[in-house]
Predict the 3D structure of the following.
Amino acid sequence: MKSKSVRLEDIEKKYGKNTVLKGINLEVEAGEFLVLLGPSGCGKTTTLRLVAGVERPDSGRIFIGGRDVTDLPPQRRNVSMVFQNYAIFPHMSVRDNIGFGLKMRGVDKVTIGKKVSEVSRLLKIENLLDRYPSQLSGGQRQRVAVARALATPFDVLLMDEPLSNLDALLRAEMRGELKRLHRKLQHTVIYVTHDQVEALTLGDRIAVMFDGEINQVGTPEEIYEYPENTRVAGFIGTPPMNLLEVEFDGEARVDGLEFHIPAKIRKFLETHGIKRFKLGFRPEYVELRRTGMSGTIVLRENIGYNEILNIQFGNHIVRAVTKRGEVRDNRVNFSVPEQHMRIFMNEKLVRDI
Ligand SMILES: Nc1ncnc2c1ncn2[C@@H]1O[C@H](COP(=O)(O)OP(=O)(O)OP(=O)(O)O)[C@@H](O)[C@H]1O
Ligand SMILES: [Mg+2]
C-alpha cells in the first residue's frame, strides 16, 4: 500500500450564506496519522468530505501526493472513507459490504475472501459476516464500515468519528488496533474526532479546529503543553487547563488575591508593561503543599485512582488533580511550578518568556 501526502490550500466552503470553512491550510505528510479535533459543528466532516471529493470547495485547492485533485471525482482520488453515519449497503451482507470496494476493482474472489477475513478479525466481526446491516447493532455497523474502508485499497484513509458508537472498553481496544495497524502499514490517515483522549492517543499530530478555522497543528505533546490560545487550552485535557484572569502591578492578583508569580515571569511582565493577562496551568501540575495560595475545596470529583479538586480562589475555581484521598482538609494551599505556567495575552500564548 502506497501512502501519499495531503495538502489543503486556502480552502473555503460555504453552505448558502454560512461560511463553514474559512481558509483551511493543512499539510498531512505521507504516512502520517493526523487527527482533526474540534467541537461539534466546527467543520471537521466538511473538511473530510472535501478531501474525499464528495463535496467541492468554493475556493482553494486540494492536493494528494502532490497532484491537484480539486476537480477530480471521488473515485479518481484513491481515498477510502468511513463516513460519520457509516453508510453501509442495507441490501448486502456484511461480507459483501466489506468486499465491495475490492469487487468493484475486479479483484478475484479468493483474494477478496482473504482480505475480508483479515479485516473482520481485526474489528472482531468475523461472526457477523453473513448478517445484514438491519440485523446489527449501531456499534457493529460502525465496525463494518471501518472494515470496508480498510479492505478497499487507498492512498489516503479518511475516518469520521469511526468509534463513536462503541462502548468505552471496545473503543479503547479498537483505538489500539487502529494504532497498531497504522504502525504496521504506515498509511496516511486523517481521523476526525471530538474526543480528545482519542486525539491524544492516536495522532502523530493533531489539528485543532474551531468555527471553520484551524487554530493549532502540533504533536499531542505540543498541543497539551503549549496550547496556542485560550480556546485550545480550554478544550484539551480532562479537566482542561485552568485559566485565571490576572491583574499585574508589580504583584499579580486574581480577584484581588495575591498570586505568586516567579521572578522570570514578573520581569517579563514588567519589561513589556503588561497589566492584564491570563494565566494558564494544567490541573495535573498543581501542587498541594503547606505553602502557596490558599483556597477552599468546594467540590471533589472522584475519577477512580485520582480525584479532581475544585478549589475556590476568589471568584475563580482552580482545578487540581490529585491522588484520591490524599487531601483530607477542605482548606488547602496550592502552588504551580514555574515551568508549567503559561501566559496568554489577548488570548494568545506568549512563548519564549
Ligand atoms: N449540507 C449542508 N448544508 C448546510 N449546512 C451544512 C451542511 N453540512 C454541514 N453544514 C453546516 O456546516 C457546519 C460544519 O458542519 P460539519 O458537519 O463539518 O461539522 P462537524 O465538525 O463534523 O460536527 P460534528 O462533530 O457534530 O460531526 C455546521 O454548522 C453544519 O450545520
Ligand atoms: Mg462531523
Remarks:
- The chain has two domains: 6-233, 242-349.
- The longest helix spans residues 168-185.
- The mean pLDDT is 94.
- The pocket of magnesium ion (ligand 2) is lined by residues 44-45, 84, 160 (CB under 6 Å).
